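Deliverable D4.2, example record:
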Amino acid sequence: MTLLMISFGERVKQWLMDMGFSNDITSLMRDVTDFILMLIIITAIYYVIKLIGLKILRKITYRTSSTWDDALYNNRVFHKAALLVAPLLFNVLAPYTLTEFPTFLYWALLINRILLVFIAISTINKFLNALYDIYQGFEISKSKPVKGYIQVLKIFLYIIAGIIVISLLFDKSPIYLLGGLGAFSAVLLLIFKDPILGLVAGIQISANDMVRQGDWIVMQKSGADGDVIEISLTTVKVQNWDKSITMVPTYSLVSDSFVNWRGMEESGGRRIKRSLNIDMNSVKFCTPEMLGKYSKIRLLQNYISSKQQELTQFNTENDIDESIMVNGRRQTNIGVFRAYLVEYLKQNPFVNQEMTMLVRQLQPGESGIPIEIYVFSRILDWKPYEDIQSDIFDHILAAVPEFELRVFQNPTGGDFAARFSAAQAQL
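Output generated by the structure prediction step:
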């Protein structure tokens, strides 16, 4: 290509000399024609690569079964690499032109080299993006996020590019400029404080497996309550359940407390912990009639018979006078109710029987006696989980009157109106 340009330039020079132009003018015109010819050749080569080479690459990438080449093409790595051809050819061929215009040639080569640095950095940036997309296709990416490390690498690349550009502008060695960075280290630390904190936090998060992409976290300080969709150098992006996005500083996951629900998801059960309050005035000992009624409940048949046999044996062995209700041991309607809840939960196919199952009384208070249900649902997804929890308590609330118990609730206007009407009727 160089020989072609030299040959063409000499022919132009000879043609102009034959026409009677001076040697100086013919030399100038030769350089100009050589420069124009070089630009035409470079432009032609670039468009051949862009229109033909990239089209061939696209067909190859779409036909292969591997995904890494698709990631390279979709992130436009090949497109950016094609841009390198023009400044590289210009840097090689330009010195053979414009020998009569040394100043213009110097600035043209300088601008071209700076352009080459920016295109090279842009190509590497696209390549890193492609590597990230390829890595995201592996299962390990969920537990070991690397976006923060890639961002740190990009920052270093931009710093190196800036140093190279400055060294080109001032015609100094990059090593000379690197030596002078020590004086600006404090300023650099201040400027890059958040990235440095994010990098350290990212290493701790990855090493201790604190957060993964896809984890459900709750961080009250930041108002985050949802799934982690991205972990980067400086921020963790959380999509809340209302579909809003909360940006949490990466280092705050190390410095502040938060809840990660991954353990719940991996355990195979989601906790149901809810209580209902029983009116204490409705609690009483069971009469034989009540026990006969409860014996007809399928889930309580074995419990009533075995428990009653146990209590009768205890009272007989201790010569208990059963004519007084508080003597000895007796079944209560609230105790039978708790036993019914245990059997009901054991029969529920959506309750994880291998995990903790409790039906317990909590401390009585002004709102009655709390009966707490503490079990784990087999279903982890939010909506089905809420449906299961609601179904359980729908049944419990409907079953309470069958045991001659009442659910406590503060009186409403309707309660006062009913009592007032009843009082008026008695008068």
